[in-house]
Amino acid sequence: VQLQASGGGLVLPGGSLRLSCAASGSIFSINTMGWYRQAPGKQRELVATITSDSIADYADSVKGRATISRDNAKNTVYFEIDSVKAEDTAVYYCNAEVNILQGDILHGMYLWGKGTLVTVSA
């Protein structure tokens, strides 16, 4: 069971960044999914979450510029930030609360994807 993130790279100021993250393996269900980021020299911060019924929440730093969405059939979460700024430069990590069925027992666990670097620069 794992999360695989894709997207990122170099983005021009004012442009858009688009990330996706797919969960794979023997997953019974997925609860909340989210995106975190860690800028150089700073702590990791939560930037967006989305529940299993697609209720989204955003950090103030991206509110109004970001959209998080998910495709439950594909176990995938998407994240987009428009009008990017230099301050959006960071390593972005996806996270998911998944349920794994082992026999008759449902186990909950948190998964992290490997970070993907986003650099906003001209």
Overview of the structural elements:
The mean pLDDT is 96. Strands 2, 4, 5, 6, 9, 10 and 11 form a 7-stranded mixed β-sheet that branches. Strands 1-3-8-7 form a 4-stranded antiparallel β-sheet, with no helix packed on it. The protein contains no helices and 11 strands. The protein is 0% helix and 61% strand. A hairpin with a 6-residue loop joins strand 4 and strand 5 (45-50). With 122 residues, the chain is an all-beta fold.
In brief, what are we looking at here?
The chain is mainly beta and 122 residues long. It is built from no helices and eleven strands.
Q: Give the overall form.
A: elongated
Low-pLDDT runs of 5+ residues are none
Number of helices: 0
* Order of helix and strand elements from N to C terminus: EEEEEEEEEEE
Mean pLDDT: 96
Number of strands: 11
The helix-and-strand class reads: mainly beta
CA(first)-CA(last) distance: 38 Å
